[in-house]
Amino acid sequence: MSLGALLHSAWEAAREGVLLFQSDQVLYLNPAAARLLGVEREKVVGRPLLLALRDHRLEALCRIGGEAAVESRGRTLWAKALPGVLLLWDRSEEKSRLEALEESSRTLAHEFRTPVAGMLSLLEALLGGLKGEEAQEALQMLYQEAQRLRRLVEDLPLSRRPGLERTFALEELQGRLERFLAPLLAEKSAWIRWQTPHTVRANPDAVYQALLNLLENALKYGAGKEIHVVSEEIPGEVRLEVRNEGEPLKDFERLFQAGQRGVHAANVRGTGLGLALVRRLAAGWGGRAYGRALENGNAFGLTFPLQTSPNLENQSTKTPV
């Protein structure tokens, strides 16, 4: 086989796009280039270059040479132009992976923020001279936050894995959440009223983190002093809601997208990742995260698949949260 035939065979099988041109006319393009450019080879060979490229940026690159990333036809293309040759690589998947990695990094930083902030507050209190029973309580809370941080490191993101989920009473989370939120509750002169008699099956750390994010949002953005945490059984699932007074919102779905914040959040520090994280955590135990308007406020909630097996309902709940 001649060298020309070998080169042609290699170009035809290449994953990268190869386009040959002369005097602004297409001489050849391989199947990969036709796919990346979204054209049919037989319709563009021998025709003007722009007819195949359909992008003035790529045409200019062919004239002046060089390399560039170009968003074209819903793809991210990396193009390299040499005299008479245009090489194309599809970088769409790579770009998506990088964007996903960046979003995961932001989300993981958000997950770490809460336990680290809690530990720093407790350490400051101990260094400030806390003694006796209060010091012992602070040490116990510090130990709990350190344990949660360890579990986050061992399993990030929090997911639905055997050994992490257990059946537990939602009431188990109440004391720990109120202790952690005590400074913010005092700052806002607010309080929490609990009505959470139900038992669910999930990762307790994931539920704690999700519920903490919802309570922090209610304290930061709600207008009333009293926050209600209510669980109730509805067909097929248990619903856990954080309800607060305030102006009813109109668009809840947007708030669950990463980086999105409400209309009342302009003067409140935050990353806009809290509710996106809540939704991801809820999906991990097979539930949902949602928001809905109330008559004089808003409710943000979590759902849990309803446990119907007697074996699950009778499991021990003594594992530390």
UniProtKB/TrEMBL annotation:
Domain Histidine kinase: 107-308
PROSITE patterns, A to Z: HIS_KIN, PAS
EC supergroup of this enzyme: transferase
Span of domain PAS: 26-53
E.C. number: 2.7.13.3
Alphabetical list of Pfam families matching this protein: HATPase_c, HisKA, PAS_8
SMART domains xref list: HATPase_c, HisKA
Source lineage: Bacteria, Thermotogati, Deinococcota, Deinococci, Thermales
Keywords from the named record: Kinase, Membrane, Transferase
Keyword ATP-binding: no
Iron found in the keyword field: no
Protein name: histidine kinase
Encoding gene per record: walK
Catalytic activity field: ATP + protein L-histidine = ADP + protein N-phospho-L-histidine
